[in-house]
Design a protein that fits this description.
heterotrimer; B: 216 residues; mainly alpha; MetI-like fold; 80% helix; 0% strand; C: 356 residues; alpha/beta; Rossmann fold; CBS-domain; 2 domains; 4-stranded antiparallel β-sheet; globular; MetI-like (chain A); ABC transporter permease subunit (chain A); transport (chain A); ABC_transp_perm/SBD (chain A)
Chain lengths: 247, 216, 356
């Protein structure tokens, strides 16, 4: 069977193991993990960006975290937690925990570097005009942080989609099933089909975020980096921290 | 915890470690070599920049496991061929570094470039003798991110049966043993730290005029 | 009125930024704080709206001690303009201007309408209203900054190097327009600048500070030019002081003009020297060189020389005469009608006569 035949076989599109169901599982894990990670990382990022506290720790651990192999982490957590969790949850809980852990750093760095990237002159002007600290945060710093916050979310999403694929190795549902099962059955068409679907899903989510950015971010912010030439290394690394580690 | 397992398997672990090193280093180096001219082009031509940086961003979104499997279909290689891993990681490295090289060249002060031009440097002389050296700190920063990520991405290849440190993870899973997992994770982190430190040193040697304050 | 009484600022590390400063800015006037970098001029400014707190001494606004008022409430009574304008990058121009009134609960439509009026007042074309800050030039951004500071019609205005980030030509233009604007709105203003010419041009009073935050001299621009207290102030004010001081002096209304008979367009020129050409109502059009031309026509008319009223500053009159044809300047009355000419030497005589 070829990749094309596998993709067009109606049998693969129906039933409890069909493509729509697996896409649904994949998205479900992604959404749950991102929601939990955001609930932790965004407030923490706001705190760090606003107070400047803990920045050194976060910046330092970001690169270290990147070197942690997600596959190893996933299996380790599974082996540790497996004895204490029953039923289908035995796959889901360790996976979600790992996905959340992986999703936090990009969102966190995106949020706090975003807040810090707000034009200092604009913040000073707001202070001088009589904005309170909270008003400055919500009306000046947060809108300016939005582009980097969204790119942090984007980085996390790719990371999560990618790692959720790997989690099929443990027995989890999702698009990774086709890859892992296909490998076990030496069914190349199924493997390649799964891989293609994951790649397409990642691209679709990427597209979604770029649309989200266009809708949410003020057009006034799309060019601000051009105006002020701050330390180029810092801007490049800030962009990288949110962009990378997407696998 | 069963430490004996490590002693009993010292030799295979060493082999996996060496495999991991070349699977990481080779694509990173090739990726850098490819990324420099591409990044230069992206920096020089506005349209080229949009196309290249955009394409790089898209390539980077493809999950590694998917790319490992799709490459044989595209290239006609065997699925178990380590070449797939090398090519996939090269793709990621290029995708990451094109942007970095372009940004790095963009960080060279206009005055410096104009001065080199006024002194009569040709285009390629200016790139090799002025712009690239000045962009070194930015490129090194990107390279550090690339190699550390690559150390982690390589482990995914264990799922399709390419031996390297990730193999310890699949073995640990099959044997329900924690020791191989911890061994693998620790070795990966150690390897990443070594690569990172080596690059920091190279960066210092390659940009002696710069004070030691390269951010992570 | 803004008043500084024995105000000092000492930072935690022991450095004194401002040392025992005493100043008074009458309502409706502009004080320029000027001095080299590190003289504490910006610190002094930022103590007024309590972006920095004074270590000792009191600053009062219309008799009210600022340290006794709530920071946020205080700042909302004081307009604030800074060097790079500090516009909100995510807001359009009109929304930047309307930001504070909106924050204070103003109606969306009304605040926008008012913002558009303010933009017109600062001389920004309406088509810029819905652009974002990055789409504007530095000078345009600065105009928006001024409009934003005026949005709640505060009685006081603080300006920190407002025009120093733009090129000299735009700067001069912004300064001229700002003088006109201040003539209309009459705010009580403190402005920080490192540019002594800007201070002398815009300030009703100028305070020169020296490094360490010590007041070197406080006076009108003319006082600084004619009677600097020491060499520091003299050096800081710079060269050509006597000539620049003429910019703040006027000739007596009785200064005698040299009679001069003008010709009209298309008339014959009988004189061999330079002759003023006027229109039917007697308003000057330019000069014609009788040595070269027989007729006063559009082709022979020289239009580069200015015609000034006697009320212009002595500096402008002297400069006009020195640059004028044959060393003379054409003088017009309040209606713009040509009344006679003045030579450079007669301007100098008139100035000396006034000084004697």
């Amino acid at each position: 069977m070829t990749l094309f035949e596998w993709l067009t076989d109606p049998a693969n599109w129906t039933g409890s193991r069909g493509i729509p169901v697996q896409v649904g599982f994949h998205l479900l894990y992604t959404v749950i993990s991102l929601a939990i990670a955001s609930a932790i990382a965004i407030p923490l990022g706001i705190f760090i960006g606003f107070t400047g506290k803990g920045e050194a720790i976060v910046a330092g651990s970001a690169n270290a975290l990147r070197s942690l192999p997600t596959l190893g982490l996933l299996i380790l957590l599974f082996l540790v937690l497996a004895p204490v969790i029953a039923g289908q949850l035995v796959f889901v809980v360790p996976t979600i925990i790992v996905l959340v852990l992986l999703a936090i750093p990009p969102i966190l760095t995106g949020t706090y570097t975003g807040i810090q990237s707000a034009d200092e002159a604009a913040v000073d002007a707001a202070r001088g005009m009589g904005y309170t600290r909270t008003q400055i945060l919500w009306r000046v710093q947060m809108p300016c942080a939005l582009p980097l916050l969204i790119s942090g979310l984007r980085g996390s999403t790719l990371q999560v989609v990618s790692t959720a694929t790997v989690a099929a190795y443990l027995g989890l549902q999702g698009l990774g099933r086709y890859i892992i099962d296909g490998r076990a059955q030496a069914d190349f068409a199924q493997m390649a089909g799964g891989a293609l679907l994951v790649a397409l899903l990642a691209l679709a989510l990427e597209l979604l975020f770029s649309v989200l950015g266009k809708v949410l971010v003020s057009p006034g912010l799309r060019r601000t980096t051009r105006r002020r030439r701050t330390a180029p290394t810092d801007t490049a690394t800030a962009a990288l921290t949110t962009l990378t580690a997407a696998r | 915890m069963n430490i004996d397992w490590i002693w009993a398997n010292l030799q295979p672990i060493g082999a996996l470690f060496l495999n991991h090193i070349w699977l990481t280093v080779v694509p990173t180096v090739i990726g850098l070599v490819i990324a420099i001219p591409l990044g230069w082009w992206a920096h020089r031509s506005r349209r080229g920049g949009v196309v290249i940086i955009g394409a790089a961003g898209l390539l980077y979104t493809i999950p590694s496991l998917a790319l490992f499997i799709l490459l044989p279909a595209i290239l006609g290689t065997r699925i178990l061929d380590p070449l797939n891993i090398v090519i996939a990681l090269t793709v990621y490295t290029v995708a990451l570094l094109v942007r970095v090289v372009s940004d790095g060249l963009g960080s060279v002060p206009h005055d410096t470039v104009a001065a080199a031009e006024a002194m009569g440097y040709r285009g390629w002389q200016r790139l090799l003798l002025v712009e690239l050296p000045v962009a070194v700190p930015v490129i090194i920063a990107g390279l550090r991110v690339a190699i550390v990520s690559n150390v982690s991405i390589v482990t995914m290849a264990a799922l399709i049966g390419i031996p390297q440190l990730g193999t310890l993870f699949t073995q640990g899973f099959q044997l329900r043993l924690i020791v191989p997992l911890i061994t693998g994770i620790v070795l990966c982190v150690v390897l990443a730290v070594i690569f990172d430190q080596v690059l920091i040193r190279i960066g210092h040697v390659a940009s002696p005029w710069r004070r030691r304050d390269v951010p992570a | 009125m803004i008043r500084f009484e024995s105000v000092s600022k000492v930072y935690d590390d022991g450095t004194t930024a401002v040392d025992n400063l005493n100043l008074e800015v009458p309502t409706g006037s502009l004080l320029a704080l000027v001095g080299p970098s590190g003289c504490g001029k910006t610190t002094s400014l930022r103590m007024i709206n309590r972006l920095i707190d004074a270590t000792s001494g009191t600053i009062t606004l219309d008799g009210v001690d600022v340290s006794s008022t709530d920071r946020v409430g205080l700042r909302r009574k004081i307009g604030y303009v800074i060097q790079h304008a500090g516009l909100f990058p995510h807001r359009t121009v009109v929304d930047n201007v309307a930001a504070l009134p909106r924050l204070l609960g103003g109606d969306r439509k009304k605040t926008r309408a008012r913002a558009l009026e303010l933009l017109e007042l600062v001389g920004l074309d309406e088509r810029f209203a819905h652009r974002y800050p990055w789409q504007l030039s530095g000078g345009q951004q600065q105009r928006v900054g001024v409009a934003r500071a005026l949005a709640t019609d505060p009685p006081f205005l603080l300006m920190d190097e407002p025009f120093s980030a733009v090129d000299p030509i735009v700067r001069a233009q912004l300064q001229d327009e700002f003088l006109r604007l201040q003539g209309e709105i009459g705010k009580t203003i403190v402005m920080v600048t490192h540019d002594i010419d800007e201070a002398l041009k815009l300030g009703d009073q100028v305070a020169v500070l020296r490094t360490g935050g010590v007041l070197a001299q406080f006076g009108t621009p003319l006082e600084l030019l004619t009677r600097p207290v020491d060499t520091f102030v003299a050096d800081f004010v710079g060269g050509a002081r006597g000539y620049r001081a003429l910019g703040f002096e006027q000739l007596s209304e009785e200064t005698a003009l040299t009679p001069h008979t003008p010709v009209k367009l298309d008339e014959r020129v009988s004189d061999r020297g330079w002759v003023v050409v006027v229109d039917d109502k007697g308003r000057p059009l330019g000069w014609v060189d009788g040595g070269n031309a027989r007729d006063a026509s559009a082709a022979t008319l020289h239009t580069t020389s200015r015609f000034l009223p006697l009320t212009a500053s002595a500096r402008e009159l002297l400069d006009g005469a020195l640059a004028g044809p044959g060393g003379t300047l054409g003088i017009v009355d309040a209606d713009g009608v040509f009344v006679g000419v003045l030579s450079a030497s007669s301007v100098v005589e008139a100035v000396q006569g006034a000084a004697a």
